[in-house]
Amino acid sequence: MFEIFDGISLGLGVATLPINLAFALVGCLLGTLIGVLPGLGPTATIAILLPITYGLPPETGLIALAGIYYGAQYGGSTTSILLRLPGESSSVVTALDGYEMTRKGRGGSALAIAALGSFFAGTVATIFIAVSAPILAIVVLKFGAPEYFMLMAVGLFASILLARGSVLRALIMIMVGLLIGMVGMDVNSGQYRYTAGFYELMEGAPFVPLVIGFFGIADILLSLERAVKSGEAVPQVGKISRLWPSREEMRYAAPASARGTVLGMLLGLLPGGGALLSSFVAYAAERKISKRGHLFGTGLPEAVAAPESANNAGAQTSFMPLLTLGLPSNAIMALMTGAMLMQGIVPGPQIMTNQPALFWGLIASMWIGNLMLLVINLPMVGVWVQVLKVKYQYLFPTIFVVSAIGVYGVNFTTFDLYLMVLAGFLGYLFAKWRCEPAPLILAVVLGPMMEEYFRRALLVGRGDFSIFINRPISLTLLIILVVMVVATAAPSINKFRNEAFVE
Amino acid sequence: MADGYTDLDISSGETVRDSTHIPLGVFSILLGSITGYIAWSYDIGRVTDMGAGYFPFVISIMLVLLGIAVLMRGGDDLPAAESRVSAVSAGERKLQLLRTLRVLGSALGGLVVFALILKPAGMVVSVIALVGIVSFAHPGPKFWPTLVLAFGLAAFSAVVFVILLKVQIGIWPGVF
User: Could you read off the pLDDT of A458-485 as tens digits, one per residue?
Assistant: First the structure.
């Protein structure tokens, strides 16, 4: 227990260093700014801003990225509530009741409920991570190669089970991602694979051009295709009432916020979980247990509090599998993994012992980030609404310029720019073919590790596949994997998957 | 909508089956065959001592099988709500194709031009070219604001990226 207190005080020391505080603030502001703008979600935002953190010290870089993530999360809810324009998908459900509250003149109250709920959820989730991550990290140290391989296979498969869309197509994305992960030198034999003679690919396909292409460029191409000339409509914001919620509203919102926090924390831990799933499930659950569930959608405070608390808690706890297992559970965590690998840090249980400053600094900065969001957001609502007036036709060239220079700036080679164009085009095609890019990028990150563990496991087992069955933890994971594969064929699961995202 | 674009309204009420499984399936089979063929030329090794080709070969085979599976399912792997799309007439399809070509051509083309001229032409010229070309991907931009944007971004990039963040590239054409 004392270790945890030591850790937290170390972490607070790291997180409150002026440079880290400054970059946490910059991250939160940039994240909120882009989160407010429609069309770019948190994943694309982090991808585009990834190169900027490359030159920073590891702690500072990760703290800034985490700040961008929370900021993007949060910015989306502000526009959902005031204008019914969810900047990104995890705040879609917030728009339902949040905007109705605005129409009834309770917009200020809805904003305050969302902010306080998020802050509460962030605080609880941060404490939860600080207490349980060290314990989990110790358990995980007992894992050998077969367990790690199975864990990653389970993680990859579960991530598509909990995402939306076709399982078959997600599996195709995983295979393509694994193949991209194979590019470069094979560590065991020194053989170069799939480099097509390009020396730029010898150390593996560079990560930044890939993610900016697959998320940033592809997203913009899709938006551009839908773009048409439109009138000069400037969003009108209704009068924002006084910010403080009434006692009546608090009576409904507070317990909903607590329930949303618990749900979000648990769902955030699941592979493929995180903010999006958390907010949808929390809204649905709250409507089911509420005595006035039939009134949802007419502007109820609890319908804002539950999903907002849940998505923040989920965003927070989705860091757990990465920090303790080295297993990124969704696309955003895959980007975090990429950022760590670029800094020469291999994510996993050893981070806590080898890099305590990084580990605890990141955890402490989560809480500080949440506090910052509370402080900077409510007073700055007016500024964020102004941001919405920026027209897309002038926004996207700006994003192109920042992305292109960012990609070039990592290795100073134009090869990376061509790779980004190729990845952007492929990402566009995959989206047209109804494939989600998230499993692909997870597989790119996990591919080399999975191959390594697979080969090592069979080396230890002398080529006998029973090594995966003879070890209890590995066997358990294998059974989970088989159950999941069978479950995808079951109609009830498919029904759940379809309904979880309907609204 | 406030972001300056709205969805194309092409719904005539009629719907047809989504057919995206065909290009996806063909792509998967082709890619898997190529990567599998290349993997075969690496050392496959044995299960006890896997070579560089083992893992990629297995994955390539799985990709081909998944490609065949997606073709055989004929599109019913999609959630029911997404398995049908609005019917589009031949004329509308042609318009859509033109729009797609315009978006891909100017957006990706602008980036390729940027990559080609960046080193010889330097930051300022390249950024102006990039903004100028990609702006054709959207029907909205007007001439003067776009020009201001291009010069503004060029100045910003030169100051922030080249001078402050030390990105290794000249500001002006030639060696400076």
Answer: 888 888 888 888 888 889 889 988 888 8
Question: What is the residue whose two structure tokens read 């993680």?
Answer: A155
B116 touches chain A (CB under 8 A): yes
Minimum distance, in Å, between the CA of residue B28 and any CA atom of chain A: 7
B34 with B21, same domain: the answer is yes
For B148, counting Cβ atoms within 10 Å of its Cβ (0-12 exposed, 13-18 middle, 19+ buried), the class is exposed
Chain A residue with minimal CA distance to B109? A421
Q: Domain of residue A487: give its range.
A: 2-502
Q: Give the pLDDT confidence of A169-204 residue by residue, as tens digits.
A: 999 999 999 999 999 988 888 888 998 888 889 888
In a domain, B27, yes or no: yes
CA–CA min distance B27, chain A (Å): 10
Q: pTM score, two decimals?
A: 0.86
At which of B24, B53, B85 does a domain end? B85
Residues B141 and B94 in one domain: yes
Query: What residue type is assigned to position A277 of the chain?
Result: L
At position A8, the amino acid (one-letter code) is I
Q: Which of B85, B115, B148 is the last residue of a domain?
A: B85
ipTM: 0.90
User: Is the model's pLDDT at B3 over the cut of 50?
Assistant: no
Within a domain: B168: yes
Residues B99 and B151 in one domain: yes
Contacts of B5 in chain A (CB under 8 A): 223, 226-228, 230, 392
- Regarding whether B161 and B95 lie in a shared domain, the answer is yes
Q: How many domains does chain A have?
A: 1
A376-402 per-position pLDDT tens digit:
777 787 787 777 777 788 888 998 998
Residue B81 DSSP symbol:
G
3-state secondary structure of A107: helix
B78: nearest CA partner in chain A: A166
The whole-angstrom separation of Cα A117 and Cα B113 is 48
Q: Are B105 and B68 within one domain?
A: no
Distance CA A114, CA A128 (A): 21
A259-309 pLDDT, tens per residue?
Answer: 999 999 988 887 776 677 788 888 888 888 888 888 888 889 999 999 999
CA-based radius of gyration for chain B: 24
C-alpha distances in Å from residue A8, one per residue of A12, A126, A345: 6, 11, 21
Mutate to test the interface with B, among A49, A166, A389 (most CBs of B within 10 A): A166
Whether B111 and A233 lie within 8 Å, measured CB to CB? no
Q: Are strands B15-17 and B84-86 parallel, antiparallel or unpaired?
A: antiparallel
| Total structural domains within chain B | 2
Query: Is the CB of A404 less than 8 angstroms away from the CB of B18?
Result: no
Neighbours of A222 (CB within 10 A): 16
Q: Which of A139, A7, A102, A25 is closest to A71 using CA atoms?
A: A25
Interchain proximity B138–A224, CB inside 8 Å: yes
Task: Find the length of chain A.
Answer: 503
Q: How far away is chain B from the Cα of A416, in angstroms, using its nearest Cα?
A: 9
Q: Which domain holds residue B81?
A: 14-85
Amino acid at site A207? F
Give bridge partners of residue B16 from the DSSP assignment: B85
CA R_g for chain A: 22
Residue-wise burial string across A443-466, b where 16 or more C-beta atoms lie within 10 A, e elsewhere: bbbbbbbbbbbbbbbbbebeeeee
For an interface test with B, give the residue of A183, A224, A456, A465 to mutate (most B CBs within 10 A): A224
Nearest to A130 by CA among A294, A7, A287: A7
Residue B7, domain member (yes or no): no
Residue B8 located in a structural domain: no
Contact between B168 and A412 using a beta-carbon 8 Å cutoff: yes
**Between chains, do B43 and A225 touch, taking CB under 8 Å as contact?**
no
